[in-house]
Amino acid sequence: MKTNIKRLSLAAAALGLVMGGTSLTLINQVHASTGAQTTQKTKNATINISQSDAINKFNEKFGSKSIKEIEVKNKKDKYIYEVEGFDSEKEYKVKIDANTGKILKAKSEKLDDEKKQEALDLSNLMSRGEATKLAQTKASGQAVKWSLEMDNNKPVWKVEFKDDNKEIEVKIDAKDQKILKVETDDKKDSKDKHAKDHSESKNKDRDHDKNKKSERNDTND
Question: At a CB cut-off of 8 Å and minimum separation 6, what does 89 contact?
Answer without folding.
Answer: 110, 111
